Amino acid sequence: MSEYHACCGGGRGLCAKGCNRQTDKLNTYDWLADLPDNAAMSNIVEVQFKPPRKGYFINSNNLDLAKGDIVAVEANPGHDIGTVTMTGRLVALQIKKANLKPDVELKRIYRRARNVDMEKFREAKALEHETMIESRQIALDLGLKMKIGDVEYQGDGNKAIFYYSADERVDFRQLIKVLAERFRVRIEMKQIGARQEAGRIGGIGPCGRELCCATWMTNFSSVSTSAARFQDISLNPQKLAGQCAKLKCCLNYEVDQYVESLKRLPSREITLHTRDGEYFFFKADILAHLITYSTDKHVLANAHTISSRRAFEIINMNRDGLKPEALTENGEPVREESKDLLDQENINRFDRSRSSKKAKRRKGEEGEKRHNDAKPAKKANNPKEVAASNPVQENKDDKNANPAPAPSTNEAAPANRQRRNKPNRPNRPNNPNNNSNQAPK
């Protein structure tokens, strides 16, 4: 059962009575529900059961009903549980849309659903999936060429409707006996088409959105391959067929516009003659009114894209025995051919970008390291400071100039330090940590 939540208090809908949460494709907006005398204008109420099944009932007890109320209605046998979806003036338009005859006798609304009714309803709904799976196995054991797509239990659990699809006529009399003996309920069989079955099951289409037959579409018109031809779509059965194994319903959405645009294009059989040569029709952008001609009938060679106006001009000139200088008129830009984005990109492009970032980061670190290594040392004005900062190099130079042994660095370092940092300060012999004044042992 569909759940309705109120935003302004109360459990009978939103602040606008005719608007509440859309739970399936058959929900309608009752834009007259806020009128004070709307419910009194008609005693017929629209009640929805398991989508997409709806029914129309008479409010014989004059109950104050609004959209979202859960009611118990008359059924054969027993009663059923449904949700009120529309009351008042617009119900007559819905009955006309459903093609119900005016002389059809409508059933009654008993009462609002009680807690006992809701408990039985939930128990019955919990059995639907298990019943569907078991009934499919029974039909398979009986050798029937049919597919049971859905099962709907009545609100009181006394009846079950089995929705099935089949390509040919099926004798299911033995199946009804087995099902009635197995589930102990009254059995009703209803045949549905492939599109209705896909709408009941639902799913995601190749466009990335939920199926049209499962969201908003209620009337299914026939779709032919001519719709694909008018739109210049490749006749590939795997791409043109939907999840119901029939042609996609969306092929009919824009076919009228394409038919109108084709009237403004020249025939594909007409060949254009110019002084440069002969041009044949190759392809056309129907909605943009652009045509691509080629010098070869079967292969795209020396392609030129011109407008339909230019094509009609050349056709009229050829009829008069004239040939233009070229296919494109002077100053008219040639439209560039569209490129397939899938050909430009590779499926591993994200991995390649990640590796390139790592390589750039590693390259930057190596460059920074080389820059730090090649950075020149601080220039010193005093040559003694240079010698003190690099005593090893000074020893090497002295060794090369004079083979006599140089003093050890331990003895030279304190003297250099005194002359550089503290030239005028005398040594402190009382400092026990100063080893420079102590006599060698």
Q: How far apart lie the N and C ends? A: 105 Å
Which overall shape is indicated by the principal axes computed on the Cα atoms? extended
Outline the low-pLDDT stretches: 2-15, 384-423, 431-441
Largest sheet data: 5 strands, mixed, barrel
Output the helix-strand order. EEEEHEHHEEHEHHHHHEEEEHHHHHH
The radius of gyration computed from the alpha-carbon positions, rounded to a whole number of angstroms, is: 44 Å
What portion of residues is helical? 25-40%
Number of helices: 15
Return the average pLDDT rounded to an integer.
Answer: 79
Strand order of the largest sheet: 1-2-5-3-4
Strand content: 15-25%
Number of strands: 12
Features:
441 residues, alpha+beta, GMP Synthetase, Chain A, domain 3, five-stranded mixed β-barrel, 12 strands, 15% strand, extended
